[in-house]
Design a protein that fits this description.
Blueprint lengths: L9 H9 L7 H12 L1 E9 L5 E5 L6 H18 L5 E7 L10 E12 L8 H23 L3 E6 L11 E17 L2 E6 L2 H15 L5 E5 L11 H5 L12 H12 L8 H6 L10 H21 L7 H17 L6 E10 L9 H12 L1
Antiparallel strand pairs: 1-2, 1-9, 3-4, 4-6, 4-8, 5-6, 6-7
């Protein structure tokens, strides 16, 4: 039997719950991840009308195709946040008594928050398992404390010890005052109202049942206090190809894959940025959207099938409607004709000869 490149599928997690598998270490997960990502997959597609044949490299978490997509989105976020509508620097000097150094004051509606976990309270796997729910609880507490609407996006990066250290960008409804603090570890925009900072620290402690540490920075003109852009920090590991020699890079991407964490920027966040990411719907999109609604109705009725007598007749009508919609789906312009997997460590050139050979072959038939 061939060993799976990535053994942690749904069946494996079911066996884990039943006690037939043991929890792997971060190192074991990372080892399997590197094997998986080092196998580059290519698809050969043929155009239905012209007969042209192309080769497309598949996107995999941590490879160059995946990184390019993420980097493009993060750069777009950084560019949008540089708009003056999100922040403005004040000309006058400010002062905050509990900060040893003070300087420029600005108004911003954008916060950059980094969360960490107490390693004495949780293992890396326990921290990742609860990370999403902890962040949701923190946002609920934040809404109550700040009393204003907001939009947010999150990137769940990791640390070199294998723990999650998610970053969240929050766009507030109203601006807060921030001051440029020249500290030992670099400059950053810190929130001037200490009560807000204390509330948000306490909210993370309540959400995680004990972890207090949260780093809260303001974003001014799309950048951080040290001059780095937001897009750079967002794409530091997730928006770049995995670096096999960097524990943080490997652990971040490996644990993201293990826990099937999604890197989707919410529609509400794009709307808060005043950036449109809605593609015009074509005929296929409209049919697929209608099919989704139909399938939800069918699933709901199928669960109630044995309860009520009239449901089977209603189901038959929905089945017919679904079949009619499927029959209306237009044929694709490009069709899959073959696949190819090439193993090569990341950072090294792979052999293009097999790709060229197949392109020549399928172009001639």
């Amino acid at each position: 039997m061939t060993e799976k490149l990535w053994p942690y599928d749904k069946e494996w997690f079911m066996r884990l719950e039943l006690g037939y598998e043991k929890q792997p270490s971060v190192e074991e997960v990372s080892e399997h991840y590197l094997k998986w990502v080092n196998h580059h997959q290519f698809c050969f597609l043929k155009h239905q009308e012209t007969g042209d044949v192309i080769c497309v490299k598949s996107s995999k978490r941590g490879n160059d195709v995946y990184a390019e997509k993420k980097s493009k989105d993060y750069n777009e976020v950084g560019t949008a946040l540089s708009n003056p509508s999100f922040s403005s620097i004040q000309e006058r000097k400010g002062f905050r008594s509990d900060v040893p150094k003070y300087g420029t004051i600005a108004q911003t509606r954008v916060l950059y928050v980094t969360y960490t976990y107490d390693t004495k309270l949780y293992s890396p796997f326990e921290a990742y398992e609860r990370c999403t729910s902890d962040l949701n609880r923190w946002k609920a507490y934040m809404t109550k404390e700040l009393g204003m609407k907001y939009a947010s996006m999150c990137v769940k990066e990791g640390t070199e010890r294998g723990y999650p250290a998610p970053h969240m960008i929050i766009i507030l409804e109203n601006p807060v005052s921030v001051v440029l603090w020249k500290g030992k570890k670099g400059d950053k925009w810190i929130v001037q109202n200490k009560a807000i900072v204390d509330h948000l620290h306490e909210a993370w402690k309540r959400a995680t049942d004990g972890t207090y540490q949260v780093d809260i920075q303001g974003v001014v003109n799309g950048g951080m206090g040290d001059g780095g852009s937001v897009s750079y920090y967002l794409s530091k590991y997730v928006g770049k190809s995995v670096k096999p020699n960097s524990k943080t890079s490997v652990y971040t991407l490996a644990m993201q894959k293990f826990f099937r964490l999604r890197d989707i920027i919410p529609k509400t966040f794009w709307e808060a940025l005043n950036v449109s990411h809605d593609k015009p719907l074509n005929r296929l999109d409209l049919i697929r959207n209608e099919l989704k609604l139909l399938n939800r109705q069918i699933t709901k009725l199928e669960r109630q099938k044995s309860d009520l007598v009239f449901i089977p007749a209603k189901l038959r009508a929905l089945y017919r409607k679904r079949d009619d919609l499927i029959a209306c789906i237009p044929p694709p312009d490009w069709v899959f004709i073959d696949g190819l997997t090439i193993h090569s460590p990341l950072g090294y050139a792979y052999d293009f000869i097999p790709i060229l050979d197949r392109l020549l072959f399928y172009s001639s038939v």
